[in-house]
Amino acid sequence: MPDMYVSIPYDTDDAEGLKGEPVNSKPVAGTIPRGGHPSYDIPNTAEGYEKAKAEVTNPIEATEENLSNGKAMYEIYCISCHGKKGDGNGYLSQAEKFEGIPSYKDRDINAGSIYHVIIHGKNLMGSHSSQLTYNERWQVIHYVEQLRSDLLK
Prior knowledge:
This protein has about 150 residues and is mainly alpha-helical. The protein has helices at about 45-55, 65-75, 80, 90-95, 110-120, 135-150. The chain has a domain at about 45-150: Orthogonal Bundle (Cytochrome Bc1 Complex, Chain D, domain 2). The chain contains six helices and no strands. The protein starts with about 45 loop residues before the first helix and ends with a helix. The relative contact order is 0.15. It holds the Pfam family Cytochrome_CBB3.
């Protein structure tokens, strides 16, 4: 009984599958895989931006840990353009690589609109959805909202 000692690997998604019958182990359409998150299907349009602003809310709590990690991610991905205070005066702005980076103080933004911009980008800012995980995006949003609040004081 050699197969008791050396198992035969099967690719369950292969055309052959098990015993010649294919097995579909992919999630059913419309479901969320275990450990996954809902997909973001709001289009990259002006209407989509407004819809996100009106309907999308931050699902994670603004804890000290989330704000701390949001700050760390902001300092990696955002600070070079948006600046340490969120005033649009980051290194790339000072070096005149990009002009017209807005201050968070001057924008009518909320969690939904920020998330939409992180996913799709806006104007010269490209999408950052591949750089940040689902939770990191929301942590950055908490931190950006804190920066905006500080600027408005």
